[in-house]
Amino acid sequence: MKILGIETSCDETAAAIVENGTKILSNVVASSAEMHAKTGGVIPEQAARQQVRSVLPVIETAFKEAGLSEKDIDLVAVTVGPGLIGSLLVGIETARTLSLLWGKPLIPVNHLVAHIYANWLTNEPEFPALELVVSGGHTDLVLMRGHGKIEWIGGTRDDAAGECFDKCARLLGLSYPGGPAISKAALEYKKTNGMQLFPRPMINDDNFDWSFSGLKTAVLREVKSNPTSLKLRRAELAAQVQEAITDVLVEKTLRAVKKFEPRSLLLAGGVAANLRLREKFQEEIARRKIKIDFRVPPPGLCTDNAAYIAAYAYFVHSPTGWQQLKANPELTIVGQI
Ligand code: KG4
Ligand code: ZN
After folding, report:
1. Domain 2-117+301-315, what architecture?
2. Least confident stretch, 33-37, 133-137, 232-236, 259-263
3. pLDDT digit string (tens) for 53-70?
4. Which of 25, 78, 150, 226 is most buried, with most CB under 10 Å away?
5. Is the CB–ligand 1 distance for residue 83 below 6 Å?
6. CA 288 – ligand 2 centroid, Å
7. 2-117+301-315 and 125-296: same fold?
8. Burial environment of residue 244 by CB neighbours within 10 A (0 to 12, 13 to 18, 19 or more)
9. Quick check: 134 and 271 in contact, CB under 8 A?
10. What is the model's pLDDT at position 318?
11. E strands, 9-168, where?
12. What residue ranges do the domains of the chain occupy?
């Protein structure tokens, strides 16, 4: 079964064709991040306008790269939420029209759950699986006992991990998106001691929740305390931010592994592209001698793309009529479409 996936929830316009939920035949992403870098963040109206410009060329390229035509497609899958309403509507209206025109069933996709399915694009992990989903707007820990069987374990009480990376990057004078910028700047810092400059909020609390807004405030205080030295200390502060965020993500997640004893641990979402986070998980799993199938998709499949949208549609598969397709900007990871 070949599925066309369409993703337009924020500032990436993406289309992919995936066979049987695992084989990527094409995967095309056009990002307007460069445009948003000039303003230090996404301006929703500009993102939506850019989606309108990119959506059809991106779909056309996805077909070209796969060497296929619409006749070869079995289903059309599209993100319905969460995301920016203007951006979401571009993908939804496009998918609805194509489905009607081509007479192909339509699958509405939860973007957050779909992120997890980037892990199915390599080979299928075993259930029960614990997933840490860390994106620009969400930080959720969920337990999956099967396709469509998702239980929410914990999440952030304020800012998402990606949002924290983005906001701290801005405070440090680094570009948008902040995660890759912080990660790159941190590479230039040669660690001299293990001093922790920033707090690890809620790290010892007996729950599976996070809080990242205090970290951002601590970074602001540090920057304000000595603005003239920011240029000299940028790499050090970036490394300190990255260490603080990754420490709490790893600690709370591995505590959940201990409690729920899943067979697999899967990372997903843009922040999962962070090399330090991946490395720290590997180190701690080995150090604590935890027996688990730990997986994280290749970095390019962690950030927004449409390959995992198509993979989700294959495994979760719940078609709807074009008349019923609705955008849901506030959709949660356990929300009903
Ligand atoms: O999943 P995603 O591509 O889009 C959303 O659904 O939000 O995640 C975007 C987020 C941004 O906050 C970005 O700064 C972060 O993922 N990100 C990273 C890295 N690459 C992207 N954060 C840390 N390290 C990275 N290498
Ligand atoms: Zn995403």
Report:
1. 2-Layer Sandwich (3.30)
2. 33-37
3. 999 999 999 999 999 999
4. 78
5. no
6. 30
7. yes
8. buried
9. yes
10. 87
11. 12-19, 23-31, 75-81, 106-110, 129-134, 139-146, 149-155
12. 2-117+301-315, 125-296
- Mean pLDDT, to the nearest integer, of 204-220? 96
Architecture of the domain made up of 125-296: 2-Layer Sandwich (3.30)
Q: Helix (H, G, I), strand (E, B), or coil: what is residue 264?
A: strand
177 Cβ closer than 6 Å to some ligand 1 atom: yes
What is the overall mean pLDDT for the chain?
Answer: 95
Burial class (CB in 10 A: 0-12, 13-18, 19+), 195: exposed
Q: Counting beta carbons within 10 angstroms of the beta carbon of residue 46, is it exposed (0 to 12), middle (13 to 18) or buried (19 or more)?
A: middle
User: Is residue 189 predicted with pLDDT exceeding 80?
Assistant: yes
Q: Where does residue 317 rank: exposed (0-12), middle (13-18), buried (19+ CB within 10 A)?
A: middle
pLDDT, tens digit, 9 for 90 and up, residues 214-262: 999 999 999 999 888 898 999 999 999 999 999 999 999 999 999 999 9
Higher pLDDT pick, 293 / 336? 293
Q: 136 CB less than 6 Å from ligand 1?
A: yes
- The amino acid at residue 209 is D
Is a pLDDT exceeding 80 seen at residue 192? no
Paired tokens of 14: 């993406």
The whole-model pTM stands at 0.96
Chain-centroid distance, C-alpha 83: 12
If phi > 0 it is left, if psi is from -120 to 50 it is alpha, else beta; for residue 220 that is alpha
User: Closest residue (by CA) to atom 21 of ligand 1?
Assistant: 270
Q: Name the band, by pLDDT with cuts 50, 70 and 90, for residue 36.
A: confident
* Residue type (1 letter), 153: I
Indicate the pairing of strand 149-155 with strand 139-146: antiparallel
Give the residue whose CA is nearest to atom 7 of ligand 1: 136
Q: Distance (Å, rounded) from C-alpha 126 to C-alpha 144?
A: 10
Pairing verdict, β 75-81 and 2-7:
parallel
Taking the C-alpha atoms of residue 166 and residue 256, their distance in angstroms, rounded to an integer, is 26
* pLDDT in the model for residue 190: 77
